[in-house]
């Protein structure tokens, strides 16, 4: 709770984030528990998601390679990385908007840092995404397409991606807790973003208009991971755009967290 005589909002927000990160084993254990509960009684467990992703990948690969007049061996690795990366982005954003609402009972009964709930959401999606990573290796092997050492540049992109995921969970989680319409709005926006972002289609299909793609935040963030794996690298302009969007997202999340952290328990 906030003391009106001594608010210390900034210090309390920083302490909350520091405690959440310092107790990373707690959100990790909770995330693993979420996965077990979600697939309790299932034979394949989270590998059902892997199977469904593989079926979608094969189906879309054969279909859109014909529609776009692309060689399947060149298109399938691109589609595999794009689709799996997109699933992670969509999962992080959509579940992040419910990261606080879902933990209403815990928030009102236990004095845990709020950042623990955001980290729980991020780690849960990371665990789910890890089940799809073998698909990328299988596609690379089947198509005999290996990115080489340039793929190491995907690691900074992954680091930036995780930071953005935490910021999104904090920002959208708080907004959804205050305004319950935010969650459905975000889900609708993500559906539109899937079609206007180069997930299924390649950027070069836009021709000269492809130069405007860095204005799309989803493309910029996705390309920092996808580019080194299937595109041979990432242009400095895309990296600059991704860093700019990440700074805006993190800044907005931190400012909102500092200002309204003390009201979260009342919003949920």
Can you walk through the features of this model?
It is a single chain. The chain has helices spanning about 10-20, 25-40, 45-65, 70-95, 105-110, 115-130, 135-145, 155-180, 180-195, 215-230, 235-260, 265. It is mainly α and about 270 residues long. The longest helix has 25 residues, at about 70-95. The two termini are about 15 Å apart.
Q: Give the strand tally.
A: 0
Distance between the termini: 15 Å
N-to-C SSE string, H for helix and E for strand: HHHHHHHHHHHH
User: What's the alpha carbon Rg, rounded to whole Å?
Assistant: 20 Å
Net shape: globular
Coarse structural class: mainly alpha
Biggest sheet: strands, sense, closure? Answer: none
Q: What share of residues are in beta strands?
A: under 5%
Helical percentage = over 70%
List the helices and strands and how they pair.
Blueprint lengths: L8 H14 L2 H14 L8 H21 L4 H25 L7 H6 L4 H17 L2 H11 L10 H25 L3 H15 L20 H15 L4 H25 L3 H4 L1
Based on the model shown, name its key terms.
268 residues; mainly alpha; globular; 72% helix
Task: Give the gist of this structure.
The chain has 268 residues and is mainly alpha-helical. 72% of the residues lie in helices and 0% in strands.
